[in-house]
Design goal:
- There is one protein chain.
- By secondary structure, this protein is α+β, with helices and mostly antiparallel strands.
- It is built from eight helices and 13 strands.
- The two termini are 30 Å apart.
- 40% of the residues are buried.
- It has one domain: Sulfite Oxidase, Chain A, domain 2, CATH 3.90.420.10.
- Strands 1, 4, 5, 8, 9, 10, 12 and 13 form an eight-stranded mixed sheet that branches. A five-stranded mixed sheet has the order 3-2-11-6-7.
- Bound molecules: ligand MTE and molybdenum atom.
- The site of molybdenum atom has 6 residues, from loops.
């Protein structure tokens, strides 16, 4: 197992004292300088080396800082190397380093997203059209994996709600189902029976329409590296990481709660809701604290307390008013 040392963080030692906004602006400045130095040689979308430990290799995808309440976590960013080198993307293998090693084989252009089911205007969208559909925002969200680690990532994208409105959800639609790419020719993980493939996740329609639910196309000011779910993925910051489906090819609006990959694999461990909840332990471990990747001390760093709804309670708790969250875990 990898033990990370302080020097994997490329920020200056005093970075934790600087506000994340200042850190981010400093990073953007570096990015800009790097882009200028590289001239027009910014790597194209597909086929680029995606195992690098710093931004500046993929196509730039800027976004303006989000003004949405709760969308800019005030914590130090997780180093780019951890964000892109320590991943769960089981289609490419179950080791944390497998996605960075294998996902470069995925072709993210052309890419089509189909939206269908209980909508007035079912249709397909090409990736180019999706990129232009909404105003790109930078949002700094915590991502908390059910395994007990977390990251703070500057994502780029827009609210999923904006896209869903385009297809005009019908009154009978209650849930949204997300299906991701499944291609045995390039995904060695599909041969292992860990999950029912393709990977399917789901949200209640009101969760999907919540402004914090992000359709992400980039991180750290560039298009998504393949291992992080290029060319588009979901980021639902108040839920465990597995709800944030990567490399989505189909969205379906439905009346019944969708059957999702993780809840089918182990229903007692991974419920449909999977809201981050320190008071509901996973059957095999506590969920009351977390290890922030990239923090000094590596595996031995002080664990942080896990917050209800991952710290987004003020924005989302009302979605669950009156629900027993011990039962609907
Ligand atoms: N298609 C797909 N999406 C997925 C997964 C996966 O295995 N396949 N893993 C999930 C899990 S468990 C987590 S924690 C996050 C990790 O996202 P990151 O690698 O960008 O940090 O992606 C989620 N989305
Ligand atoms: Mo996860």
């Amino acid at each position: 197992m990898l033990i990370r040392s302080q020097d994997t963080d490329c920020l200056s030692p005093s970075a934790s004292e600087i506000t994340p906004r200042a850190v981010w602006q400093q990073r953007r400045q570096l990015l800009r300088l790097a882009a200028l130095a590289g001239g027009a040689s910014l790597a194209p979308w597909a086929g680029a080396s995606q195992t690098g430990d710093r931004p500046g290799k993929l196509t730039a995808l800027p976004g303006s800082p989000s003004t949405l309440p709760g969308a800019l976590a005030m914590e130090p960013l997780t180093p780019h190397a951890d964000v892109t080198g320590y991943n769960n993307f089981y289609e490419f293998g179950t080791d944390k380093s497998d996605p960075a090693r294998h996902a470069h084989r995925m072709k993210t252009r052309p890419w089509t997203l189909r939206i269908e089911g209980l909508v007035g205007k079912p249709r397909s969208f090409g990736i180019e059209e999706l990129l232009k559909l909404g105003a790109m925002e930078e949002r700094i969200y915590r991502l908390r994996c059910v395994e007990g680690w977390s990251m703070v990532i500057p994502w780029v994208g827009y609210s999923l709600a904006g896209l869903l409105r385009q297809v005009e959800p019908l009154g009978s639609a209650k849930y949204v189902e997300f299906t991701t790419l499944s291609d045995p020719a390039i995904m060695p993980g599909l041969r292992a029976g860990v999950l029912d493939w393709p990977y399917v996740e789901g949200l209640r329609l009101d969760e999907a329409m919540h402004p914090l639910t992000l359709l992400a196309f980039g991180l750290y000011g560039e298009v998504l590296p393949n291992q992080n779910g290029a060319p588009l993925r979901l980021v639902v910051p108040w839920k465990y990481g597995f709800k944030s489906a990567k490399s989505i090819v189909r969205i379906r609006l439905v009346e019944q709660q969708p059957r999702t990959s993780w809840s089918l694999a182990a229903p007692r461990e991974y419920g449909f809701y999977s809201n981050v909840n320190p008071e509901v332990p996973h059957p095999r471990w506590s969920q009351s604290s977390e290890r922030r990747l990239g923090e000094s001390g590596g595996l031995f760093a002080k664990r942080r307390p896990t917050l209800p709804f991952n710290g987004y309670a003020a924005q989302v708790a009302q979605l669950y008013a009156g629900m027993d969250l011990q039962r609907h875990y």
